[in-house]
């Protein structure tokens, strides 16, 4: 697909965007754990509290987008200050998400990898291309090995890694 069905922007432009750092989820987990430990705040971070904090930050992120109508990829409609706020709220969401995973003893990087493999099986390229609807057909899960192979091949062709 060369153009987004939603706002008409070119996907090839999206492909130029990269993160500048390879900060790992484990880095975030250990730094956040230390941040709480140093303040004797672990007592305030059982799973339910952290989940509510996460939802609160998702709300703060949503406030930045509300009543604007659809916005363009890269947020050219936002002022630089508003874009800084988006980055800060995204950070709060990620920090609390990682914290929640720790509080639940969920190995987040491992389950994310696994979930992305399942997504590729559920939405195989040959069936899902150009379709934005949810796949509620469980039989799609039965094609596991060939579709995971497809995804890995595509990734290797895309950036030469793995
Ligand atoms: N009990 C707390 C309080 C804060 N934080 C950390 C994680 C978040 O990244 C950030 C959240 O801080 P605030 O609650 O002050 O929220 P904001 O930074 O969004 O400020 P504001 O709500 O004023 O916009 O600080 C935390 O881990 N545990």
From TrEMBL:
Cofactor requirements of the protein: Mg(2+)
Catalytic activity: dCTP + H2O = dCMP + diphosphate + H(+)
GO biological process: dCTP catabolic process; DNA protection
Biased composition annotated in UniProt, kind: Basic and acidic residues: 130-139, 150-162
Localization of this protein: Cytoplasm, Cytosol
Chief localization: cytoplasm
EC number: 3.6.1.12
A molecular function (GO) term: dCTP diphosphatase activity
Annotated stretches, region: Disordered: 123-162
Highest rank taxon of the organism: Eukaryota
Gene Ontology cellular-component terms listed: cytosol
Complex formation: Homotetramer.
Protein name: dCTP pyrophosphatase 1
Source organism of the structure: Cherax quadricarinatus
């Amino acid at each position: 697909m060369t153009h987004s069905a939603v706002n008409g922007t070119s996907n090839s432009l999206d492909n130029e965007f990269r993160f500048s750092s390879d900060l790992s989820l484990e880095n975030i987990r250990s730094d956040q754990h230390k941040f709480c430990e140093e303040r004797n705040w672990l007592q305030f971070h059982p799973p339910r509290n952290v989940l509510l904090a996460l939802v609160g930050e998702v709300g703060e992120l949503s406030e930045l987008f509300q009543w604007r109508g659809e916005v363009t990829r890269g947020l050219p409609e936002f002022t630089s200050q508003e874009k800084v706020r988006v980055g800060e709220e995204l950070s709060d969401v990620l920090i609390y998400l990682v914290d929640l995973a720790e509080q639940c003893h969920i190995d987040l990087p491992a389950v994310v990898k696994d979930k992305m493999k399942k997504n590729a099986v559920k939405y195989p390229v040959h069936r899902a291309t150009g379709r934005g609807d949810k796949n509620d057909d469980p039989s799609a899960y039965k094609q596991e090995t060939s579709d995971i192979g497809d995804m890995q091949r595509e990734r290797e062709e895309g950036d030469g890694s793995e």
